[in-house]
Amino acid sequence: MKMHIKKDDIVMVISGKDKGKKGKVIQSYPKDAKVLVENVNMVTKHQKPTQQMQQGGIVRQEGAIEASNVLLYCEKCDRGVRTGHKVLNDGKKVRFCKKCNETFNN
């Protein structure tokens, strides 16, 4: 499945408990249509002590959220926007904001 969000994109959450938050995409999972966003959907995980992490305990980390619950953030519009694709004159395919026609670097 093709997703509209990629790793290192700045996105805005449009639904759920973290609605309105902005963050950078840490990782995307195209098969599951989910993304990990920095400081969004924080969950607690009980971690056992291991060789790498000597001290166990409760760790807070990001949980995956549905890609349909985030929109690409446009700095010109200052909000999450829908995007389209277009091919530039040099043959490069880019995403653009459907509100202000601003292109996003891929």
Automatic annotation (TrEMBL):
Any Pfam family: KOW
Record keyword Cytoplasm present: no
GO CC annotation, single: ribosome
UniProt domain KOW: residue ranges: 4-31
GO biological process, one term: translation
Subunit structure: Part of the 50S ribosomal subunit.
Family per record: Belongs to the universal ribosomal protein uL24 family.
Purpose: One of the proteins that surrounds the polypeptide exit tunnel on the outside of the subunit.
The protein's name in its UniProt record: Large ribosomal subunit protein uL24
Organism in which the protein naturally occurs: Acetobacterium woodii (strain ATCC 29683 / DSM 1030 / JCM 2381 / KCTC 1655 / WB1)
GN (gene name): rplX
